[in-house]
Structure to design on (171 residues):
């Protein structure tokens, strides 16, 4: 067995779910593509996300009490690429990715109207983890389209942005 660097070791995990997080309100919101998404508790149902500290979206996660996780399927892959490669400091990502806001059901943050599955999260707390902050919270509602299936989700694959894998294709 050979030893590898910690940075390279992260790619040994394989895949992580790709989401576009939306945070803010209908008048002031931002989007960010994330792959550091993790379940943190089953009862109550809680989810966490890792946001790089220098990211513009980090400011939104500190400022607003809730956020939505829009699961990325093939239909949202181009939008995920836009939201993951541009800064909200420079561009309105909703417009740049040609996305429409929908009002949250139980949170103030909007979600992506065309998303096939959405988790609405009420933030419970955060903690620093090196160069990221983990923001976590309680799932207060989950919205899914009638014909949605989890095998439609995209994965962030082997530590390289843009190398997404569709679960339904097999890994």
């Amino acid at each position: 067995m050979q030893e590898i660097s910690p940075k390279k070791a992260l790619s040994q995990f394989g895949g992580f779910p790709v989401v576009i997080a939306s945070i803010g309100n209908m008048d002031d919101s931002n989007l960010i593509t994330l792959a550091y998404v993790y379940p943190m508790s089953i009862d109550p149902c809680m989810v966490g996300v890792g946001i790089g500290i220098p990211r513009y979206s980090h400011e939104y996660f500190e400022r607003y009490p809730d956020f939505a996780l829009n699961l990325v399927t093939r239909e949202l892959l181009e939008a995920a690429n836009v939201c993951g490669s541009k800064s909200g400091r420079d561009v309105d990502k909703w417009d740049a990715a040609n996305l429409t806001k929908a009002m949250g059901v139980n949170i103030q943050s909007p979600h992506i109207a065309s998303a096939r599955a959405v988790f609405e999260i009420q933030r419970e707390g955060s903690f620093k983890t090196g160069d990221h902050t983990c923001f976590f919270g309680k799932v207060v509602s989950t919205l899914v389209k009638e014909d949605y299936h989890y095998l439609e989700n995209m994965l962030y694959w082997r530590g390289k942005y843009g190398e997404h894998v569709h679960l339904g294709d097999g890994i």
Summary: The CA atoms of residues 30 and 88 lie 6 Å apart. The radius of gyration is 15 Å. DSSP finds four helices and twelve strands in the chain. The longest helix spans residues 77-85.
